[in-house]
Amino acid sequence: MRILIILFSILLIACKGNEGPNVSISIATDLQADLHDGRLLLILHHNDDREPRFAISDEVGSAQVIGIDFENYQNGKDFDFNMEAFGYPKENWKDIPQGDYWVQAYVIKYETFDRADGHSIKMPMDQWEGRQWNRTPGNIFSRPQKVKWDGKNSINIQIDQINPPVKEPEDTEFIKHIKIKSDLLSEFWGRDMFLGVHVLLPRDFEQNKDEYYPLMIYHGHFPSDFEGFRTIPPDEKLEEDYSPRFNIYGYNKIQQQEAYDFYLTWISPDFPKFIVIQIQHANPFYDDSYAVNSENIGPYGDAITYELIPHIEKEFRGIGEGWARFTYGGSTGGWEALAVQVKYPEEYNGCFAACPDPIDFRAYTTVNIYEDDNAYYIKGPFRTTERVGKRNYLGHVSAMLKDMNYKELALGGTKSRSGDQWDIWQAVYSPVGDDGYPMPIWDKYTGEINKEVAAYWKENYDLRYIMERDWTKVGKSLEGKIHIYCGDMDNYYLNNAVYLTEDFLEGTTDPYYRGEVLYGDRAEHCWNGDPELPNYISRLRYNTMYLDKIAKRLKETSPAGFDQRLWVMKR
């Protein structure tokens, strides 16, 4: 018996030594009132170059994050953080190296949505910041504090900071800001839901009230204001910054100069007159809805096409017909530009899709969701290899696909709530699961692909497949309208889906698609079709670079009475 007692005591000591750090997180009294449900993040960063909440990324230098969900928070109660929860980049807290870290706790608040489909789900609500969890107004967090991490010491953190409300932009002579309640989206989400839009008006808009204009829809991520338009020269005292993405100094000054140059072009007497809009359609899942109808996101395609766009055309003298609407954008915006053209073929007269998100799911970045069994691993009889996720123009890999998804798993859990890329694709494309959340295309931890979900994706959102399936019905409506541009070294391998789509388009007959697909040699993500200029310049010129192609299309399709020089109709 004495031996058993001694052995049991040794076991208790050993177990106690492996329990890990005791992390206690308190909430300041004045921040407890509206805290109910959410996700609590514990973030450790290895240096103080930025706050830990801004240092989580796909790259190898990412901060460490561990996340847990909570419900029904009780005022005055501290969180005893569960260190056994899933983490990224280190999955297990025990593998975090000892050393000095800056630690921060952060709460992403959830709200309950009672949707029209009968499901009740808990999600973060966009507060007009563009569904950016680390900036969402009302989310609360602690100040970063330096700790010596040894896997054993206790850590006490107080959350006493709150993100402030967004300051909305003011109207100017050329730029107006509109926000409308969408009846379609409000019915779906069970609460008032709004769409916003930044409108760029042509010169002399108020002086020429008998002019009506074509509408250019510039799709992209959530813009805080109209991007790339500036009525004053670059700031003389601007401190030039370094852009690691483009490896150049002074990119902020280049952006200001390009925005000012666009203004000078916009007001010049020879420049065509038209309206440009950028849409704000953030939602509980992401900073953007992907502009299509979705079981999980709601009828954003119909809301934008049949509610928002007619409202803008009525308010700002748009022509108001499909032949006078054009779409363009890059990345997410590139996918949207093509998607709305395909799904609403008569409502738009041309799309210019740059570096689009996967438009053929046989190349869902580096995964074929129809034939591959696992998204994370390529398995052979004697060896298994991880699937790559991100590269540079030389092909050097900086992130694996598994790691990119594990980051989202730590940030948002298993309900597509991370607010990041793979979760929004899943939320847009998937059917609703029994729990009311998107059915996973693959197991977020193992990578095993759900073929039933893949089949649903194919029929509803694989743009190449949909065009090929329906070409006899929609081909004539899409003739001359499809233009796609992509770098052949796209960082996320998006060019592979473009290759497959081009194969189909070039084989079309009755009619031949009569559009354009171009590739940039060694060009990375966001290449948009200009072979002469570097990508860091051309990506700032979306509003001008497709004009010659749009002008040609307008000459072919516009009715009599349309001014081909100014692009206006007299009423």
Automatic annotation (TrEMBL):
Query: SUPFAM superfamilies, from UniProt?
Result: alpha/beta-Hydrolases (SSF53474)
Under the heading Gene3D superfamilies, the entry gives:
alpha/beta hydrolase
Q: Which InterPro entries match?
A: AB_hydrolase_fold (IPR029058), Mycobacterial_A85_antigen (IPR050583)
Top-rank taxon, per record: Bacteria
| Protein name according to UniProt | Esterase
Q: Which organism is it from?
A: Cecembia lonarensis (strain CCUG 58316 / KCTC 22772 / LW9)
